[in-house]
Design brief:
Two copies of one chain form a homodimer. The first copy, chain A, has 673 residues and is α/β, with parallel strands linked by helices. Chain A is 41% helix and 15% strand. The first copy, chain A, contains 24 helices and 19 strands. The longest helix of chain A has 26 residues. The radius of gyration of chain A is 27 Å and the shape is globular.
Chain lengths: 673, 673
């Protein structure tokens, strides 16, 4: 098996009439060459394996066939004697523990009569099977895969998603379907943020008060964890555990207050403890704890957090200050570095590589550690220059509610990282998207992660030259459909939440509103001035159901742009714009009675009114534009006031069609000009 | 605890402003009295149990709380010291095996400050908790239950659903969510049709070739069956197994050809074997087999099928004819009765009561047996007169694709049964809806069973005076919403199937068509003249996704009726009619490109065109009606031709808005009059 080294992006579509847009692949492979014709997927579809039989591979193929069957609705009945439709060969089987940097390449060749999938490892086979699934499409002649040759391997070896399960507990079945999603977009790491101030989520047999007193009773047993790790391993996903220390450690000290640098009192709701790095007892505890967890989590990497250490308890504790002085340290940062060195030795003893956030970077630590950067490419580049490996998470925080295109534009090798030497660049291992869990529950977490996470997966897998947002959105829509077949609820959960808020299944008017709003961005929902978040409050309002990105608003903005660029001479775009504006203008009258009868919806009455006003303003603007007649100055002033009003968040929601309506109003000609 | 004896239907709504329609209960309780105010469901909601602690009850309450939490989106955090919001008391715990005829009554009292649920048995508590869940509604002041007093008990003790798992295998997880559905509408029997010609679905350890050769490899292990029975028991649902004999037995004889009366050859696809009742070896086999199954299935009832015995193999076998003659029998029917007597003795030895279809009724059988009637109330009444107990399934066949109202109108005590004496009437135990599985898969079975099954549940539970279809449909819509929270896919599966057919998530035009079609009725899809069904064919076409009943068509027909009854003077109805007709007229142009690019959809092109023509015809009819002006005769003739065309099934689908459009066209005044 040759090793495939792609030389940048090769997309050759000249051999066939199949358009690029029909290949709904995400991430786009390193190299794709389209041939002539297509391979029919019929009831006799079958898979064969060349080489030795392998039960692991067999079960992977079975899952693949089940997935293909769900996608197509075809119950397969292969003819035992016939040649297999898809022939598979891997040079090597799976390692019992998946390694960071393993060969993940594969080669998939599809002709009009058969398909071949070859890879140096079974990891590559897993990826190739996902590519095959994405290539299957319905055609006038049945389901088929276009004839194609794909050579593929990832750009970065570490492509992860962090899920915080501390702020809100996320059950294993929800995590499992998200792992299916990761495998579908060729991500290979689930970074499991298992402890934080609000909850300790792992059963420790050595220190049971961690989970018993440090959680609301919701944690994973060791049996569940082992089962989950095996599940993820089968799908080519490594599980990297994170236990955040010495800060973010409230949940530890409820049961073990001796770990803290202060005296409390601490509850799951209050107190800001930091572990005491000056007491030997702390290390004895961590030695035993890490020894237990190192056995439970087989991955070579172990994340110790290390972020946002608020030094107040250290400042206030005279013994700790004395220790700092006695050891010639200059700052709390030095004390944290000392703590991390001690921690690193414990990890090394357990054959683990330490991973931590930006703040752990300190020259006293060995070059083996990995720094995960929430600060940006400059921080990552600085680490790489010093010889440390790094991962980018800055720009990939899914909880900030950014549009997919904004995440897509973030590249680990951009900005400061672009100036690194090739050797330094090789230390940038990849990146991780992050789903922090202040505002998610098992019900809506899928829709916060997906489908946007798929574009970060593409950024980390595919050639960096890919930058076209329009193509990305088209392909993202297709991926979204594939995710449905995995049981992810990113598109179905909202529907049920709307039913709940409305108390009826007749929610078409509510859906019109929900389709054009997005939750406020960044941490504007999490305003420190409002006091601490109640992590037990219901998350059942429209802000909790709304998608982070409104497809309707994006499409509408595109229509308005086309229309205005055409100088008002695009009747097809105008007709569509008019249909939307009319729907919005008339929607509040239909929706209002529903909003009034539900305590969960009444807060949305003003935004529904704003939408109606925008609809009216937009339609009036179209009238003036059509007639080419100047509008009264007063009208424009009034409309801009309405628009300014509509830009303000209502019930935590932004009305995302405001800007394009403003463009329409601004485009009208003033009388006074 | 007093026994509650309802004296017919008591619905008292005079004490409050809450309208009847806001009580979305299905089945409607024996007696409901509405009080003043409402009980708020807040985060501090809690449940308390009076009397001895009971782990079974505790786990039931936990499930109830989980369900309430899903429904409301509220994570409950009861105050340990506060009085419980809902206080529960049962006089008696659960029997380890649920008995037919156990007391299922309960009393639920809700005031504006607390609720009480009392019942003689925990079965009653289960039902009362489901009533409570249905009463929870969103209000301007949050989630709440109206103050209400409910006394309730079922009209019939046996309220079941038959699921055929032979024609298409249905996995346990799908059955489990359907059991949750049964519990939600207070049905208490799942009749599991486990063997038929096309598949033997139970693992027999004594006769392993039954499942190994008599199925396509898909069957339930005994461990899965035990787990499923326990699951159903927790939800108050008995599992009654059916092994169909001596006919419908192709799957038995593949592995054990000695059971057959003929010589075959038999495959799962062909042959019509009947068991040989004349050989002692047959009874030895059945004795061993029934002994094994009687232990596996704890219910007191055991269904032996007995339907549709095609006597051809008996006629052709000289030994069997000799046996009939030697024993003084007059017909194959007598031979079947002999077989059933032998079977009944084996069952009695295993402490099982025999249940079978109409055909088992024969004076030689003891009065303990139960006859399930697919033939109708006359057959049921005849059995009751002879002293036999009976169940009605005639009129409750869900696979016939009837509208809910048609099932709702069928009453076990109607027609011939109405003339029975009280003692004879008491022998009619209830009924069972039937989901035969020629045309269902795990994907669409929920939408074939639900929500229509809920109206059969109401017929079997609630007072017989309830007959109002309008109220039924309103409440059915609410139940449909509750079913969503149980994970049933009766409303969500179609969406994904539309995505698959279209190859995109942009399916709004396809949904417009899907909303107005229904599959052909009765067994018109299963036309014997077309030859045997391929039970392995994909079921992924529009006919497989379409709901058995179109809500849109029903609502449209209602609008047209109102409009015409008003003499064309109902502008609100007219506006809605016009909106629908316009949507339909314009839909084909949008949908056509999609239909062309999918092999699964191209067969639907003519029906989409028919819909467009109906839209146009209806709009033109409205014009003539509005103007009061006579239409040209030619126009009417043409339209009626179009309508006649649109009435014909296309791709197995009926266009259900044809009749109301015809009414509009017919209402126009002819020139020649």
């Amino acid at each position: 098996m040759r090793i495939l080294i792609p030389t940048g992006l090769i997309l050759v579509f000249s051999f066939s009439g199949v358009a690029q847009s029909q290949l709904s692949l995400m991430p786009i492979p390193a190299s794709v060459q389209i041939g002539g014709g297509q391979l029919a997927i019929t009831q006799s579809f079958s898979v064969g394996v060349r080489g030795a039989s392998d039960p692991v591979l067999d079960s992977e193929i079975q899952r693949f066939q089940g997935q293909l069957s769900r996608q197509t609705g075809i119950p397969f009945r292969p003819q035992p004697s016939a040649a297999p439709t898809l022939q598979i060969h891997a040079d090597h089987g799976r390692e019992s523990v998946q390694k960071q940097g393993e060969d993940e390449s594969y080669e998939l060749t599809v002709s009009d009569s058969a398909a071949q999938l070859n890879a140096p490892t079974q990891l590559g086979i897993l990826h190739g099977l996902q590519t095959f699934l994405q290539l299957v499409q319905i055609t006038p002649n049945g389901f088929a895969v276009p004839a194609v040759t794909v050579w593929d391997q990832p750009r970065f070896p570490w492509r992860g998603l962090l899920i915080d399960v501390s702020r809100h507990f996320i059950p294993i079945d929800v995590l499992k379907r998200n792992v299916d999603g990761l495998a579908a977009v060729k991500m290979n790491v689930l970074h499991w943020h298992l402890s934080d101030d609000q909850g300790f989520r792992v059963e420790s047999k050595k220190f049971p008060r961690l989970q018993e007193m440090g959680s609301d009773g919701m944690y994973y047993t060791q049996g569940e964890i082992r089962d989950f790790i095996a599940y993820a391993h089968q799908r080519g996903v490594r599980i990297v555990p994170e236990f955040d220390m010495p800060g973010h450690s409230r949940s530890w000290v409820i049961g073990y207050p001796e770990l803290a640098s202060g005296t409390g009192p601490y509850t799951l709701e209050s107190g800001d403890p930091i572990m005491d790095p000056t007491r030997e007892a702390t290390y004895k505890f961590l030695d035993k704890f890490i020894g237990e967890m190192a056995k439970l989590f087989p991955d070579a990497y172990f994340h110790i957090g290390g972020d946002e250490v608020d030094g107040k308890e250290w400042d206030k504790n005279p013994k700790i200050q004395e220790f700092i002085h006695a050891h010639g340290m200059k700052s709390n940062q030095d004390l944290q570095a000392y703590f991390n060195q001690r921690l690193q030795k414990i990890l090394a003893k357990n054959h683990k590589i330490m991973v931590g956030w930006d703040e752990i970077l300190h020259p006293d630590l060995p070059k083996t550690i990995v720094v995960q950067s929430w600060r940006g490419q400059a921080s990552l580049a600085a680490a790489a220059k010093q010889g440390y490996s790094g991962l980018l998470s800055f720009g990939y925080y899914l909880d900030l509610m950014w549009p997919a295109a904004r995440h897509y534009a973030v590249d680990p090798m951009a900005d400061a990282a672009a100036t690194l030497t090739p050797e330094e660049k090789s230390r940038i291992l990849g990146g991780e998207s992050c789903q922090w869990a202040e505002w998610v529950t098992p019900e809506n977490i899928d829709s916060h992660i997906w489908p946007r996470n798929a574009v970060i997966a593409e950024r980390l897998w595919s050639p960096p030259e890919l930058k076209d947002a329009a193509s990305m959105y088209t392909r993202l829509n297709a991926v979204s459909l594939d995710l449905e077949w995995l049981g992810l609820t990113d598109r179905s959960a909202r529907q049920q939440m709307l039913y709940r808020m409305a108390g009826t299944t007749e929610v078409s008017a509510l859906r019109v509103l929900a389709d054009v709003v997005e939750p406020v961005k960044d941490y504007n929902r999490w305003d420190e001035s409002r006091g601490p978040i109640d992590f037990h409050a219901p998350l059942n309002r429209l802000i909790d159901a709304a998608y982070p990105e409104s497809d309707t608003a994006r499409q509408f903005a595109g229509l308005v742009q086309s229309f205005l660029q055409s100088g008002g001479k695009d009747p097809a775009a105008e007709a569509q714009i008019r249909t939307w504006l009319t729907t919005w203008r008339d929607n509040d009258a239909k929706l209002h009675p529903l909003l009034e009868q539900s305590s969960l919806l009444e807060e949305d009455a003003p935004i529904s009114q704003n939408l109606a006003m925008l609809g009216g303003a937009g339609l009036q603007a179209l009238e003036y534009l059509d007639k080419g007649q100047p509008e009264p100055d007063l009208w424009k002033t009034e409309q801009l006031a309405v628009i300014a009003q509509a830009k303000k968040p209502v019930a935590g929601l932004l009305l995302q069609v405001t800007a394009p309506v403003e463009q329409l109003v601004q485009a009208t000609v003033s009388q006074s000009k």
